[in-house]
Amino acid sequence: xxxxxxxxxxxxxxxxxxxxxxxxxxxxxxxxxxxxxxxxxxxxxxxxxxxxxxxxxxxxxxxxxxxxxxxxxxxxxxxxxxxxxxxxxxxxxxxxxxxxxxxxxxxxxxxxxxxxxxxxxxxxxxxxxxxxxxxxxxxxxxxxxxxxxxxxxxxxxxxxxxxxxxxxxxxxxxx
Length: 175
Prior knowledge:
Layout: H1 6-27, H2 30-33, H3 36-64, H4 82-92, H5 97-104, H6 108-116, H7 124-133, H8 147-174
Helix pairs in contact: 1-3, 3-4, 5-6
């Protein structure tokens, strides 16, 4: 999960406190200590949540407190991660969703939809417009074409189409 706004940040801080309290409660529970494996399983589960929340909180705080007099570098490992980079750029620039909407000349609700769906509802042109409005530039991009992946996708699509055709054929025979 990624913290995208102040409300989510406050919510994350609350949950962090709750998980830390749960760990402290586990550590002091003598009854549960009689079952060390069970106790450790619960503790590890809570600790995992604490670690994840701390990481997200730290990243959000880094963004809201970044030095805006210098360009911010955000690493994007794949095109699928571009939406997170756009949201991080908006947060770091201290631009609200309403301000971004005003810059783009669209309704704030549309920007909320972009971010709530990690830009799945945005067209490529809309993503380019947001990137431009936020001053996001790619320094160097390397595209790797994975031919084995292409073949795997083709096989999956062929299998899916055949299954769909079989279902249709079977359904028409049943009537």
